[in-house]
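Chain X:
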Amino acid sequence: MADRFHIDDILAEDNINAALEHMRKKKTGCGFDGMFNSQLPEYWERNRDEICCRIRSCNYIPVPALQIRRKKPNGGIRLIEIPSVRDRMLQYAMCIVMQPYYESIFSDRSFGFRMGRSTQDAVELCVKEMNEGRVYVADLDIKSYFDRVDQRKLMAMLSADIEDNAVFGMISAYLGMRVMSGCHVFRKVIGLPQGGPISPMLANVYLNKLDWFMEKAGFHFVRYADDIVLLCTDREEAESVTKHVEQYLNEEMGLWLNRKKSALLPAEELHFLGYAFGNRGGEYHASIGNKEWEKMHTGMTHNIHKAEENITKWWDRLGAYNRGWMNYYLKVPMELLEYYALEMDEKEAEMIGRIFGEQADLYETAMWESRSYISPAEWYGRLKERYGKTACQIQKASE
């Protein structure tokens, strides 16, 4: 067995300080114990020795996570388990030590919750595969993935890399941590708790087995968390590949496909990570589909109606929204992005004028005082100047 992770590395002062600094920058609320990020450094200084002793002796018990409900975009409910800030910090300290190794063994075709990888990278690979002739796709969604992970199988996977009992014990404690839901306390025995820093990494560890099954079988796929796109030459191949993947999920991993969200369809009908895909002159490209356009317009309308007493800050937020959606769609060819930018610019100006026409002077003055506002058309101009005219010239926005 390879002993890759040691509790001494996780609890090392430099590593804990890095985790504390990460928590300081995060604007997150408190957990069940009522402690805020600002209180964490002092708390850790007072209780560090006792907590470290419990962790090393495999007797550490996390603070119960606080369960909250969040609405999904499709109208469903997602249950989130928020750990205490102390446990979030310790989980992040584990990620700092463990993630670099797991990144080295993860598939190049997975992108969600990965270091240095983005939705744009996943979309770019989809376009590449389409232009190589794989123009029929199986768009697969794993049903309730985070809630259905088999903890025993996950721990068996981790045991191949972890020999230190204290590290193994910490992961086990977080997987089975108590959860406070209203007035009830329960312990998770299946699934991954959503809300802690370590869960996304563990989610990829579990699905890495599926990734390498698909790699060895020669399937062309792109995975982002529990969303999988299999790129095939025709429908017959898509049906065959889907059958093999579904069988592996069922028999080896105890997971099932969400039938309502999974489909076999031509590449032009795929909607993936907020992108649509189009074909011009026989060449595929990323695009913004009708569903994505409606969502952007809804977001813009929502932001405009959020005008408050501090109008300058409102302009700042609106400018941030304009920059954000275009930065996200940098994989769309520039000539198409220009069309969407000009359309959004016109709709935004029309709506602002209609709603605030009687206070036009007040809002115009505040706009000039804003340091961050920029219209969609103006931001498009800067993007074009920076990245060039075609999609192939566009680099990652982070570079």
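Chain Y:
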Amino acid sequence: MSTASIHIENTTKTSAVIRFEGFDPPVNIILSHQRTPIFKSARTEGDGFVEVNALSPGILYDIVASSTSSYESLHASFRTLSLPKPSTPKLSVDYYSRDRFRAGWSSDRAEFYRVRIFRDGWEDSFDTKRTQIDQPSRGASQVAVHVQAHRASEVSASSSAYVNRPESLPPPLPKPPDPNLVPPPPSPKQTPTKSVSKEKSSLSAPVGYLYLASIIYIVLTLLSGCQMAQEGNHFLIIIIASPIVAAVWLAMLGFYFLPTCIAVARKTSNRGSIFGTNLFLGWTILGWIVALVWSISG
């Protein structure tokens, strides 16, 4: 077999002619891109050519030509012609507020645009065929916009623009009042009656306890006086001794219900149970101690 060779002729943006020489027929030709076969043809003549179409511009293709009779194969590669690069976009930000901004650009020979938006460290990237975007500013202190024009495998230089900071903008105008909106009624002036009522409620409990102790004291005094009168004591002794006896009984009664008083003063949630234990089991001393500990730890 003579020396075999492969020649690439008439390469365009979307087609090429593959000519091979020196192969014994039949000849197999496989055309691939990035190891993916996209064309396969079997030739029956030793010398000839194959024209391939529907290729992409600016792409590198691989060729494998082999002869089945001699098991000899050759490798070659070629690149289709590239499309002219799209022009660099002319980018500008024509509107900016605290809430939104609008950017526009123009470029020749572009199929789509790749847009990147930076807002205080956050990045958004997307592709669009439009030449204008309307995006929220999200309260960023500074917003940067980058745009690249794409056409097939060709990419233009990027164009960038920065928007103004929010603090450089004038303050927003106040909204006019709605004529259909009924104004709310004026709120009444606050008076110190609430605080006075709170003070009265905080003082009412000690005053009530004092009244109750006074009534018990008077009742005990009358009972003591009646008891002494029945025993035939002198009237002067009754007048002097009966209040003392009543005070002693009142002190003993207060000491007996000391756990209940502590529970009521501390506003313990189970003060009812403490009162029952104090009332019915306090005379056992052990029940009184249990009620006292319960009122302190409850």
